[in-house]
Amino acid sequence: MKEMTKQNLYxxxxxxxxxxxxxxxxxxxxxxxxxxxxxxxxxAIAFAEKVHATNHLRALGGINDTSANLDAAKGGENFxxxxxxxxxxxxxxxxxxxxAEKSIHYAIEAEKIHETMYEDAKKSVDEKKDIPKDDxxxxxxxxxxxxxxxxxxxxxxxxKKEKYIKF
Length: 167
What we know:
Layout: H1 3-32, H2 36-59, H3 66-94, H4 98-126, E1 136-138, E2 145-147, E3 165-166
């Protein structure tokens, strides 16, 4: 693929991905505010944006077998933990942006766990085995993720385990 087309598709992928997330978040807000049909509209269009992002990523050759996808996911998490979030955190601290610092702290703590989870899953996949069938819980405040029963309180933000979302 020619470089300009490739860069354009990466930019389009990023934009569509952000739209998918933004509209999904807007749907949750509309639901909480008592507008279920508006929420449904946001969810439908969010799905369309996901379709667009998927098509762009496929055209870029970014969807591979599960083992390669796990490598890519692990690499992304590692980049966030080792480079991206520390740099963002330094800027937020320098500028005294407390909410940004908290948001970045939450993300970096979760990303560390995600990287390990992907690494463990890749080992299983490379041995031609699926990962064990355990419940996965995610803290809806900070994103802390745990396989199996969570502790009583989230170790990152102290939310009670009853509030975790079960997958």
